[in-house]
From TrEMBL:
Peptidase S33 tripeptidyl aminopeptidase-like C-terminal domain residues: 399-486
Residue intervals of the AB hydrolase-1 domain: 183-279
InterPro entries linked: AB_hydrolase_1, AB_hydrolase_fold, Pept_S33_TAP-like_C
Domain of life: Bacteria
Keyword Lyase: no
Organism: Streptosporangium brasiliense
Signal peptide, first to last residue: 1-34
UniProt xrefs under Gene3D superfamilies: alpha/beta hydrolase
Full protein name: Pimeloyl-ACP methyl ester carboxylesterase
Keywords: Signal
Length: 489
């Protein structure tokens, strides 16, 4: 009989199907039970911003769930006990986004908006393994392997992949925690089930936001019988694959850009007022692809802005207070067409480097975020440019994960809905509704509430209408009617 290490070596050479099988075997309940023998000790939480009555604890989980007796990491927990204990239903576990966000910080920030569900539920948050990694990773792991660019041929693609593989391997070699190879969302989902067991709950209710949808889907894959309710707030649908999710949101971005150009045409303060703002933007990005704009960022130094940089990082769909972001964008476009790209320098150069930092990528690449080949990149780019003339191109997150040196632990693949309760989703029609609706659409009987305004992670943003529907769902398992919409707040 092969040992775990032998199976792992063999898996590296036999491809993705073997990896899926090993992942499924590693997720069996006995391994999870073996890792969680002692109940956590709860104590009063200390620290700034802590809500009254909040209790804290910690559990240990394996770094590698395939080796439950191997090295461990500590996951911090926080709990706000139900304020009406006689009517208590159970626990709601928050699944933070990021990846790398700290769910305990989310609970502190959103506690005032969680008063109603907090009457009948213990509200539980945790610090996921991605945050543990973020706080402990070697400093060298935040040094980018390159500054991302859009490859224009097989040679450039291979050069980018080689540069990323080199820096990713160097980060793995410097890692003393062992977490580099084990931050996939299947591992995070097993952590979540260890928390469920530590809480003494047979089933949990969940609130997931943003990237938290990826471990939410992984939990639904591994432990469908443990889910009482699942609220998804602006969550990505990794099940359908990252390219699909990007292509779904590009038409939304085009519609929001039309909102911007319409606003600009009606607003004398807009720097492009009286002009065809869309035509100006298109010419700027085409010209920058032919002749990149030299810039200097006070934080990131010198660089050059191509049209790809501008399309990827330049436009923000949320106009901001008093349309301040759109005013700044229009001014930056006006100056950039004259050769001054200062208005885009920090955000473009910063993102192009941060998304090439191995420490950040290690939290997400194992969920199959990268391009597997230049042919895949080309296919995606053709689709994206057809859908979105203003913003289509290679996806920066997938470019960052190009060259991932390990087997993809959590590949995109269909999710069986059998045994799952109906889910409730909520998302902004200006952005993430398309993601969330594609997720809930996989689960029969589910509903997604459309928030008709800009925003992301609506519950954490204090949006009252989505909060009301989420509270009713979590408490009574009652869903709103399909097609329900919330007005902008």
């Amino acid at each position: 009989m092969m040992t775990t290490k032998q199976r792992r070596r063999r898996g590296r050479t036999r491809g993705l199907v073997i990896g899926v099988a090993v992942a499924a075997l590693a997720g069996m309940t006995p391994a999870a039970s073996a890792a969680q023998e002692a109940q956590p000790t709860w104590r009063d939480c200390a620290g700034q911003g802590t809500s009254a009555g909040m209790r804290c604890a910690a559990i240990e989980v394996p770094v590698d769930w395939a080796e439950p007796d191997g090295p461990k990491i500590k996951l911090d927990l926080a709990r706000l006990p139900a304020t009406e204990p006689a009517r208590r239903i159970g626990s709601v576990l928050g699944i933070p986004g990021g990846p790398g966000a700290n769910g305990i910080d989310d609970l502190k920030r959103a506690a005032a908006d969680l008063t109603e569900p907090g009457r009948r539920f213990d509200l539980v948050a945790y610090k996921p393994r991605t945050t543990v990694w973020r706080d402990q990773m070697p400093p060298s792991c935040m040094k980018p392997g390159t500054s991302l660019f859009e490859p224009q041929g097989q040679k450039q693609y291979k050069a980018l992949a080689a540069a990323m593989t080199k820096i990713l391997k160097a980060c793995q070699d410097a890692d003393k925690t062992g977490l580099f190879a084990h931050m996939d969302s299947l591992s995070v989902a097993r952590d979540m089930d260890a928390i469920r067991e530590a809480l003494g709950e047979e089933r949990l209710s969940f609130m997931a936001n943003s990237y938290g949808g990826v471990p939410a889907a992984a939990y639904a894959r591994l432990f469908p019988q443990r889910i009482r309710a699942m609220y998804l707030d602006g969550t990505i649908n990794q099940v359908d694959g990252w390219p699909d999710q990007t292509l779904r949101t590009l038409p939304v971005l085009e519609r929001v850009f039309t909102r911007f150009t319409t606003w600009c045409a009606a607003t004398p303060a807009c720097a492009l007022h009286g002009q065809d703002a869309e035509a100006v933007w298109r010419k700027l990005t085409r010209d920058a692809d032919r002749k990149p704009i030299p810039v200097t960022s006070s934080e990131f130094g010198k660089g050059k802005l191509t049209g790809w940089h501008l399309r990827s990082f330049g436009f923000i769909g949320d106009p901001g207070p008093d349309n301040s972001r759109w005013l700044a964008f229009a001014e930056a476009v006006d100056r950039a067409r004259g050769g001054d790209g200062t208005g885009f320098a920090d955000v473009a150069l910063g993102n192009a480097r941060i998304w090439a930092a191995p420490g950040a990528l290690a939290m997400t690449c194992a969920d199959e975020r990268g391009y597997s080949s230049y042919a895949q990149l080309q296919k995606f780019r053709r689709q994206a440019q057809k859908i979105s003339p203003n913003f289509g191109g290679a996806s920066f997150d997938a470019l960052g994960c190009t060259g991932w040196p390990l087997q993809v632990a959590n590949p995109s693949r269909p999710l069986k809905s059998r045994g799952l309760p109906p889910f409730l989703g909520a998302g902004s029609t200006w952005g993430d509704y398309a993601w969330t609706e594609s997720f809930t659409g996989m689960i029969p009987g589910s509903v997604t509430v459309a928030y008709d305004g800009p925003g992301h992670a609506l519950y954490l943003s204090g949006k009252k209408c989505p909060i009301r529907y989420a509270t009713t769902y979590l408490t009574d398992l009652r869903l709103p009617k399909p097609g329900t919409t919330c007005p902008a707040e």
